[in-house]
Design a protein that fits this description.
Largest sheet: 5 strands, mixed
Oligomer: single chain
Bound molecules: shikimate-3-phosphate
Structural class: alpha+beta
Low-confidence stretches: none
Radius of gyration: 21 Å
Strand order of the largest sheet: 16-17-15-2-23
Number of strands: 23
Length: 421
């Protein structure tokens, strides 16, 4: 797919529903005691994996992704291995759920997911009493022998909402309380949802304490995904003739690091919370930002913008001075090695960037010439370089652009809606 430079970008977008919250809504409604109704679910390849696995385990779904009734049923042990596709959230959250059910299951995934570390969930869940076997004791395929678990107090070595959620979900059916302490706060959707369902969850800084509990079904509408909106927000700032408004987007403070960083850089971006419904929801407005300055991204903000960090490099290309991200080694463990893929592809389109073990440095006011890039099957890298194509001189050809369907199947339709060539 060749993305050519656009003369102007403008318009109002209602971005698709949140991926993290969709996974959690499916899982929690399957674990509830009574029926739930979920509205505005994100349908993409990743969330389809969670849906399919729960269905295989016996959960009944009725309706469509706009309005879905979820009828929980006691899980039945599946005969076949469960396919997690490209989805780290499915794998890690479901490992917590499966570890707390007395069944034997095997999880497997695509080649990218099979390279991502699972020891980080195996270790705490083993301490709680489940048994695991995995390739090289760290990678998929992974076999889980679930059990009646005991609560633990666990300090996670990395800030990870997937690991935290896996432990909390396992803790729901354990004996005794479960405590998770993170080195920095990661997204808190699981905690918010559990609290709202009446599960005793207490938070103090980066420490979460959960008492085991059952809960009733619920009704929930999924807000727009700030991580999908992020591509359009950054486009609005770096394009020389742009004005974009995003509506009904989730503005949970554990997800808005990119907006804060853009403000620090001097971008013309404003956001406003218009509704508080379990999650804060609101509007983001962004315009051409010719006076951005490079910054050193504060380390404590990294978990609050983990999926958006590569976009900071793109902002840095258009800012004055240097933009630096350090302390972000987790980027190498995502759907691709995002530091490597970013650096290699930036060089292919004529942008200079310095690679660090744990981040990158970009100097500002560079031109993006254009060329051919390979996002290595990583949806977020494909979307980032598509945006870059619109502000390039000669256009960018994005190889295997179809991988955007992992999180945002209608990405190119949304792009067409805001661009004028
Ligand atoms: C997610 C957590 C983050 C994020 C991922 C979604 C979640 O991963 O990168 O896209 O839904 O909990 P980590 O927990 O590995 O940081």
């Amino acid at each position: 797919m060749k993305i050519l430079p656009a003369k102007k970008v403008s318009g109002t977008l209602d971005v698709p529903p949140d991926k993290s919250i969709t996974h959690r809504a499916f899982i929690l409604s399957a674990l509830a005691e009574t029926e739930s109704t979920l509205y505005n679910l994100l349908r993409c390849l990743d969330t389809e994996r969670t849906y399919d696995i729960l269905k295989t385990l016996g959960t009944v779904f009725e309706g469509d992704w706009e309005k879905m009734k979820v009828v929980p049923r006691p899980f039945v042990e599946p005969i076949d291995p469960l396919f997690c596709g490209n989805s780290g959230t499915t794998t890690r959250l479901m490992s917590g759920v499966l570890a707390s059910h007395e069944m034997f299951t095997i999880l497997y995934g695509d080649p990218s997911l099979s390279r991502r570390p699972m020891r980080r969930v195996m270790e705490p869940l083993e301490m709680m009493g489940a048994r695991f076997m995995a390739r090289q004791n760290n990678f998929l395929p992974m076999a889980i022998k679930g059990n009646h678990l005991s609560g633990i107090s666990y300090k996670t070595p990395v800030a990870s909402a997937q690991v935290k959620s896996a432990i909390l979900l396992a803790g729901l059916r354990a004996s005794g309380r479960t405590i998770v302490i993170e080195p920095a706060k990661s997204r808190d959707h699981t905690e918010r949802m559990l609290k709202n369902l009446g599960v005793p969850v207490e938070e103090e800084g980066t420490r979460v304490v959960l008492e085991p509990s059952s809960f009733k079904g619920f009704k929930m509408r999924i807000p727009g995904d700030i991580s999908s909106a992020a591509f359009f927000i950054v486009l609005g700032a770096i394009h020389p003739n742009a004005r974009i408004t995003i509506t009904e987007v989730g503005l949970n403070p554990t997800r808005t690091g990119l907006l804060e960083v853009m403000k620090l850089m001097g971008a013309n971006v404003e956001w406003e919370i218009t509704e508080e419904n379990l999650e804060p929801i609101g509007v983001v407005r962004v315009e051409t930002s010719p006076n951005m300055k490079g910054i050193i991204v504060p380390k404590d903000m990294i978990p609050l913008m983990i999926d958006e960090l590569p976009l900071v490099a793109l902002l840095g290309v258009f800012a004055k001075g240097e933009t630096v991200v350090r302390g972000a080694e987790e980027l190498r463990k995502k759907e691709s090695d995002r530091i490597k893929v970013l650096v290699e592809n930036f060089r292919r389109i004529g942008v200079e960037v310095e690679e660090f073990r744990d981040g990158f440095k970009v100097s500002g006011k560079q031109r993006i010439k254009g060329g051919v890039v390979d996002p290595e099957g990583d949806h977020r890298m494909a979307m980032l370089f598509s945006i870059a194509g619109l502000v390039s001189e000669e256009g960018i050809d994005v190889k295997n652009h179809e991988c955007v369907a992992v999180s945002l199947p209608n990405f190119y339709e949304l792009l067409e809606r805001v661009m004028m060539v």
